[in-house]
Amino acid sequence: MASRLIHTTDKGLYCEAGDFYIDPWRPVERAIVTHAHSDHARWGSSKYLCSKPGANVLRHRIGADAQIESIAYGEKIRLNDTTVSLHPAGHILGSSQIRVERDGEVWVVSGDYKLDPDPTCQPYEPVKCHTFITESTFGLPIYTWQTNDELFTDINAWWEKNKKDGKTSLLLAYALGKAQRLLMGVDTSIGPIYTHGAVESLNQVYLQSGVALPETKRLSSMPRGSKFAGALVLAPPSAYGTPWQRQLNPVSAAFASGWMRVRGIRRRRSLDKGFPVSDHCDWPSLLKAVHLSGAENVLVTHGYSQILVRYLQEQGLNADTLSTQYEGEEETSSGESSPADSLSEPAADEVPE
Amino acid sequence: MKHFTRLFVALDETTKTSEKVKVMSEYFSTCSAADGAWAVYLLTGRKLRQLVPSARLHQCVKELAGLCDWLFAESYDAVGDLAETIALLLPPAHSSSDVPLREWVEERLMPLRTKSEDEQKALLSAYWDELSTSERLVMNKIITGSFRIGVSQLLVIKGLSKASGVDESTIAHRLMGDWSPTEEFFTQLFASDTQDADVSRPYPFYLAYPLEQEPEALGNVGDWLAEWKWDGIRSQLIRRQGKTFIWSRGEELISERFPELLEASQQLPDGTVLDGEILAWAEGEVLPFNLLQKRITRKSLSKKLLQEIPVALMVYDILEHEGVDVRSLTMRERRRLLVQLLSPGALDDAPSCRGQLNPIFRVSPNLLVSSWQELAESRTTSRDLKVEGLMLKRADSAYGVGRRKGDWWKWKVNPFSIDAVLIYAQRGHGKRASLYTDYTFGVWHEGRLVPVAKAYSGLDDAEIRQVDAFIRQNTLEKFGPVRTVKPELVFEIAFEGIQHSPRHKSGIAVRFPRIARWRTDKPMEEADSLQTLSALIDGGAAS
């Protein structure tokens, strides 16, 4: 390819023909943002473009002063020599795949995405393209997710058992997206649900955006000495093991993350319970998405990228890695993403109250 | 299988010992005796010999999951445990069954061993197809013989005791030695009648804790008995009903390895159980441990070997005397019985060493000391005597069960230590799967680094992550699971002993190496040389 429609620069994924960046990691003139997780949406750019359903969340993340423009899913806009449209990615509220077209050549940057149903956001929409850019956080065949039914049966059973034992159920999940997805799925008849501040503020944004979350109470709004036995508490992973957690004793803590599928990773974190659930694709979904895109060229960003690339090459596709600074699920780092990295420090906006 | 898998998951999901005991007790109270026997067998770490070869399991899973070799290898590498890798890779099951554990093990899994390859494959895929992911994990662990889930024998004993009302020491005793996981065994385990008849059954070993504080913290030196810490094979010699059994601490029957002890034991009265250390011993001196190992590892014991490597039993305790369990007597009283038995006529607390009954039974001498200071000085002579340091035992203590803090302490001499460079790394297993935690270290020899020690432990989690990141970024070559790492990081390696060894590339072998600390202050050029290391063999003191 003489000039690639999209390539990596030191600031991020750049489309020269349209003169815009997608999820840049440094401030730029025009940024198109796939979704509001901190490794994709960074502050400091002059102009942002995102999907309409994602606008509130993005504003919450990068500040009231940011210049944010939003368009409906499927709406086509002209940016210099390119036509750009956003399509649902199914990852979190407002998450988009970015479709870029120039002279009949179509590229799709899928950002983070999943194919599994999620009541907090629009379902993933396959978009035909010539070149598909995908992540591969869980790009190994050991990663296959349960159905939502199985998952919530397990979570509800855990909550009920803790309630019976007089314990608080502390469910640790990424504050943006994962926490709300879990809220929509749990059986609210079991008991009251409380939230850590980091989760509650995003719940409010989801509610403003029209997602019908069940009722929750901010834990810190409760009078001192309140008892939480039998309740479910949603908090970001960084709250685990902090003094904040003490008010919940006796407590059973569980971490909701795709990494929890592997026993060794859970045990290394000294966690009692893990629920393997992710807003990223499992291995079969990654392959399915590549197939549905109809792309001949696949560029793989963060995660087990080498593995997915090799596999796709063996299937006869043009596949290659694309180096970025995206981080995948929770706190994994770029480059050779390993589950070990999920131990690293949490994002700054997730420090406990 | 469902019941046992629930137990497995419950044990796996808690780090609290009280919770583990509780769930085990619940299981043992409600399971059938036949299932309970197998559960005890598996939980206490007893293993069936691998039922299906690993390579065949790999092949089977690859076929069922439609995976090529490298993708399977990458998956295994990320998980670190074969049984779990298989459980995660298999396609979802089409049915569900609840066959009891005993039937699974005895009628389904054990017969696999003698089946043909095709039959094994057909049976495995049929079995997997009726199990959930966690049930498959349990099944695979039984097949591969790697059933480890973080419960100690002591916790299983507590669980059984809680469920049965039988006291812990009786349960512990009943779990010693050779037994088969049968319904009768489990029923007997729960029996309230404690007059057990098995003549070969040893007592649970009492184990010492390492002394980490200053000995003065133990109080008055006069309340303690001190003896050398011998470096041999901890053993229990049982003489009952005209028969002798020698058990190692790993609960292996090792009687046949020591015919001279069997012969000498005929002089012991029936109803005698001795606790001590088997040593390679000649001319009043202990010989290197690796000589003793030959007595254990050689297939056949030639006359020549028996002559070259004579042994002695250094006895330091008596657990059964005239057919009576004397573990509840005080250490001082037991020692008196021991001396009377092996060295009749000697003073009770004499430092006598050679037994007069038969010189092969020696009584481990007590050090006569009047102060901690004096004891500390004696300890510094340990290496000359080829012992590991001192044992401190409270004079009025009973013989306990397992490793308990308080009455027995091992006060070892400081380990040897060297500075060595990280040269190879491999991923860990189990809890550390997917992190590079198994390291090989080298020292300098003629301008090159030669491997001298492998170590798995000694770093904290944060350090492990840093070293892991370094390894990933500085891999020179990969050979299967092993990475050659750019030599740069220096670690202080501590170890207990050092021997010449023609089998090792470096010509030396170290015992119990572990990482003492990460020498971030040291450039690799300043790591130790093979020459320095060799000099330690001839009695060089720890630096």
Please tell me about this protein's structure.
The complex is a heterodimer of chains A (353) and B (543). With 353 residues, chain A is of the alpha/beta class. Helix content of chain A is 20%, strand content 24%. In chain A, the strands form 3 sheets. In chain A, strands 7-8-9-10-11-18-19 form a 7-stranded mixed sheet, with helices on one face. In chain A, strands 1-2-3-4-5-6 form a 6-stranded mixed sheet, covered by helices on one side. The model of chain A is unreliable at 331-353 (pLDDT under 50). The termini of chain B are far apart. The relative contact order of chain B is 0.09. Chain B folds into 3 domains: 2-144, DNA ligase i, domain 1 (Orthogonal Bundle); 206-412, DNA ligase/mRNA capping enzyme (D-amino Acid Aminotransferase, Chain A, domain 1); 416-537, OB fold (Dihydrolipoamide Acetyltransferase, E2P) (Beta Barrel), CATH 2.40.50. Chain B is globular, with a radius of gyration of 26 Å. Chain A binds chain B through residues 140-142, 144, 261-265, 267-268, 270, 272-273, 304, 307, 310-311, 314, 336, 338-340, 343-344, and chain B through 12-15, 65, 67-68, 70-71, 74-75, 78-81, 84-85, 88-89, 137, 430-435, 461, 465, 468, 472.
Question: What is the assembly state of the chains in this entry?
Answer: heterodimer
Largest sheet of chain B: 7 strands, mixed
- Using the coordinates above, name the CATH class of the largest domain in chain B: Alpha Beta
Total domains of chain B: 3
Topology:
The complex is a heterodimer of chains A (353) and B (543).
Chain A: E1 7-9, E2 12-15, E3 20-22, E4 30-32, E5 47-51, H1 55-62, E6 67-71, E7 77-79, E8 82-88, E9 96-102, E10 105-109, E11 131-136, H2 148-164, E12 168-172, H3 178-185, E13 193-195, H4 197-208, E14 217-218, E15 232-235, E16 251-256, H5 263-268, E17 273-275, H6 283-293, E18 297-303, H7 305-314, E19 318-321
Parallel strand pairs in A: 3-4, 4-5, 5-6, 10-11, 11-18, 12-15, 12-16, 13-14, 13-15, 16-17, 18-19
Antiparallel strand pairs in A: 1-2, 2-3, 7-8, 8-9, 9-10
Chain B: H1 2-12, H2 17-30, H3 33-43, H4 54-65, H5 69-79, H6 82-89, H7 101-109, H8 117-128, H9 133-144, H10 153-164, H11 168-175, H12 183-190, E1 206-207, E2 209-210, E3 224-228, E4 233-240, E5 243-248, H13 259-264, E6 272-282, E7 285-286, H14 289-297, H15 303-308, E8 311-321, E9 324-325, H16 331-342, E10 361-363, E11 366-367, H17 372-379, H18 382-385, E12 389-394, E13 402-403, E14 408-412, E15 416-427, E16 436-445, E17 448-455, H19 461-473, E18 475-479, E19 482-485, E20 490-495, E21 497-500, E22 508-511, E23 514-518, H20 530-537
Parallel strand pairs in B: 1-13, 2-14, 8-10
Antiparallel strand pairs in B: 3-11, 3-12, 4-5, 4-6, 6-7, 6-8, 8-9, 12-14, 15-16, 15-19, 15-20, 16-17, 18-19, 20-23, 21-22
Helix pairs in contact in B: 1-2, 2-10, 3-7, 3-12, 4-8, 6-9, 10-11
